């Protein structure tokens, strides 16, 4: 250990605060713009189909640029890259708020994704660097709180800003946060050694093609009826080809874009699988609940946010507890307990019905928040506990990338299942609406006799019930995925106790 490595990190608390400000700013933008899309449509002269490119452009750009974070951090310095990312992301956010057309908005959202891609993995790297190993759990608890609570409050904050002010404030709100985060990071972030590292352009190009095609396929599939469209087949071909060539390349290249030795660490490899599952559960459930509460229960945006807020509270509580427990309790037991609570919450959600009040939604949300927090903190800590420090920047970028891919896969999966199952349920329930059904005569004699208004009311009830069953089917699928992930906890290795603290290189 060098003298530089032994130097204590000053202003650790302030560094953590400004890093988390930047992280929350970036994470919020993955969901905060969703509720503003209808308002953007008219102002930007876009259609209901083309406005979705506002979301797609950001997701694709972030996915392509996330894996390159490690190389850029070595080349120009972690501190410098983080500062550039904050400035670029904030300026791109302002440009999005000033957009005058759909092409300008899509272009500025691409820039947002490019600059924002490095913020989350670098924030995790910094927190691991500036904290000793015995405090890594608490550091990951704070980091995880921002990562997981951000998407929960994003739709609520976006809805309030859109209704109270204008959709442009969804982006303008990043300016003060970005300024404070930049000034704090510029003042207190420690400098790191730079490493001259050759850029593997071919490997990056193959991975970029694969990731971009995957994100486009997942985002565009529902709009073009999936594999009924040639476009999706092209994306699938490019994705499979890109991934295949990338894997073959890094296994044989002298200095590949991502070193295969990184994946030999069992904790890190298992952590990638776990975070993929967490990504599916977290954002898939968040994608399902707002439309369910709006369309079936008739909740306005603000009420939906209030009903879902306890989920975030449960997450923060469990993360803060898990960060301290990690020093005394086996991380594998905490992950198992967290997954069990998450599965229990999803089982509770399979009992939802249009006739209930908000109490079951709140209770299941709190239980799910507690469960996800218990999984995320030990997972984020153990996944990097045994990996070599030289892999850390690449590893954290992959960790964020896999979580985002899991989120995209989960959202697409539950959306497709919801549409498909709702149609099947509607057909099966509608088949019972006949004049020969005595229950229909008891419920509505006018409908049984062919009254159009009464039949319209019955059809709305059938649609409501069919959609509710579709949501329940999705919750049951996520519960099964969670239970299937439980045995993976056995593959995690318990980190060595009393090891050397995580160090930081300072000038």
Automatic annotation (TrEMBL):
Domain Major facilitator superfamily (MFS) profile per the UniProt entry, residue ranges: 15-497
Topology term for the membrane: Multi-pass membrane protein
Any Gene Ontology CC annotation: plasma membrane
Main subcellular localisation: membrane
TM ranges: 12-33, 53-73, 80-100, 106-128, 140-161, 167-189, 201-218, 230-251, 272-290, 296-321, 333-350, 370-389, 401-419, 475-492
GO molecular function, one term: transmembrane transporter activity
Cell compartments where the protein resides: Cell membrane
SUPFAM superfamilies in the cross-refs: MFS general substrate transporter (SSF103473)
Database matches in InterPro entries: EmrB-like, MFS, MFS_dom, MFS_trans_sf
Top-level taxon of the source organism: Bacteria
UniProt keyword annotations, A-Z: Cell membrane, Membrane, Transmembrane, Transmembrane helix, Transport
NCBIfam families: efflux_EmrB
Family: Belongs to the major facilitator superfamily. EmrB family.
Protein name: Multidrug efflux pump, Major facilitator superfamily (MFS)
Source organism of the structure: Cereibacter sphaeroides (strain ATCC 17023 / DSM 158 / JCM 6121 / CCUG 31486 / LMG 2827 / NBRC 12203 / NCIMB 8253 / ATH 2.4.1.) (Rhodobacter sphaeroides)
């Amino acid at each position: 250990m060098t003298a530089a490595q032994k130097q204590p990190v000053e202003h650790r608390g302030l560094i953590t605060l400004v890093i988390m400000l930047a992280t929350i700013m970036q994470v919020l933008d993955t969901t905060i713009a969703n509720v503003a899309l209808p308002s953007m449509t008219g102002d930007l002269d876009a259609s209901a189909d083309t406005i979705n490119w506002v979301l797609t452009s950001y997701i694709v750009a972030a996915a392509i640029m996330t894996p390159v974070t490690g190389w850029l951090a070595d080349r120009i310095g972690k501190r410098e890259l983080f500062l550039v990312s904050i400035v670029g992301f904030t300026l791109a956010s302002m440009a999005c708020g000033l957009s005058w057309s759909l092409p300008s908005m899509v272009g500025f959202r691409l820039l947002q994704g490019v600059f924002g891609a490095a913020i989350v993995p670098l924030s995790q790297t910094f927190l691991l660097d500036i904290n000793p190993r015995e405090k890594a759990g608490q550091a990951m608890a704070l980091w995880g709180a921002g990562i997981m609570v951000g998407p929960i409050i994003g739709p609520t904050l976006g809805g309030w800003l859109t209704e109270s002010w204008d959709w442009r404030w969804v982006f303008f709100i990043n300016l003060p946060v970005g300024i404070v985060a930049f000034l704090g990071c510029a003042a207190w972030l420690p400098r790191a050694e730079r490493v001259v590292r050759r850029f593997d352009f071919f490997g990056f190009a193959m991975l970029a093609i694969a990731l971009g095609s995957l994100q486009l396929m997942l985002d565009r599939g529902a709009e073009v009826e999936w594999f009924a469209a040639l476009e999706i087949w092209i994306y699938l071909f490019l994705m499979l080809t890109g991934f295949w060539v990338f894997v073959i390349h890094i296994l044989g290249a002298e200095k590949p874009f991502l070193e295969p030795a990184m994946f030999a660490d069992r904790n890190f490899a298992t952590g990638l699988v776990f975070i993929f599952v967490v990504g599916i559960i977290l954002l898939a459930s968040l994608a399902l609940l707002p439309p369910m509460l709006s369309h079936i229960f008739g909740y306005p945006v603000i009420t939906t946010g209030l009903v879902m807020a306890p989920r975030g509270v449960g997450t923060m509580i469990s993360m803060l507890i898990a960060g301290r427990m990690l020093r005394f309790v086996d991380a594998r037991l905490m992950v198992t307990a967290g997954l069990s609570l998450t599965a229990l919450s999803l089982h509770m959600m399979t009992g939802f019905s249009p006739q209930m009040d908000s109490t079951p939604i709140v209770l299941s949300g709190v239980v799910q928040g507690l469960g996800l927090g218990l999984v995320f903190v030990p997972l984020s800590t153990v996944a990097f506990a045994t990996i070599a420090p030289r892999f850390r920047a690449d590893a954290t970028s992959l960790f964020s990338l896999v979580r985002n891919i899991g989120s995209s896969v989960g959202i697409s999966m539950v959306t497709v299942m919801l549409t498909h199952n709702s149609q099947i349920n509607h057909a099966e329930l509608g088949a019972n609406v006949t004049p020969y059904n005595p229950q229909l005569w008891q419920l509505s004699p006018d409908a049984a006799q062919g009254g159009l208004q009464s039949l319209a009311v019955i059809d709305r009830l059938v649609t409501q019930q069919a959609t509710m069953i579709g949501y329940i089917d999705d919750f049951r699928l996520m519960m099964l995925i969670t239970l299937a992930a439980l045995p993976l906890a056995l593959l995690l290795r318990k980190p060595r106790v009393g090891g050397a603290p995580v160090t930081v290189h300072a000038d």
